[in-house]
Design brief:
Shape: elongated
Structural class: mainly alpha
Helix content: over 70%
CATH topology: Serine Threonine Protein Phosphatase 5, Tetratricopeptide repeat
Mean pLDDT: 84
Number of strands: 0
Distance between the termini: 45 Å
Largest sheet: none
Low-confidence stretches: none
Radius of gyration: 15 Å
């Protein structure tokens, strides 16, 4: 269901129907976080889509509720993996 909501929101987003897309992204995000967890790739994708929508519409609440916080975690983990791989050589 979360994937379908995200896809419909994406369709509305691509049509410029931002006011209709945002609540669908929010519903998809809430459902995905509850069912899959906040760090699941599908949840992160929905969060990214919502953040991009808000960026497109210049919504100042982009960071509201820590929307981008998981990206910081992913970035930190990526940097850790790069350092670990470098140390193997």
């Amino acid at each position: 269901v979360a994937t379908s909501l995200n896809n419909l929101a994406g369709l509305y987003d691509s049509q410029g129907r931002f006011a209709e897309a945002e609540p669908l992204y929010l519903q998809a995000l809430e459902l995905s976080e509850r069912v899959l967890g906040v760090h699941h790739p599908n949840t992160i994708t929905i969060r990214k889509n919502l953040a991009l929508l808000r960026q497109e519409t210049h919504n100042s609440s982009l960071r509201k509720g820590g929307l981008l916080a998981p990206f910081n975690l992913v970035e930190r983990f990526t940097q850790f993996l790069k350092r670990a791989a470098k140390n193997l050589h």
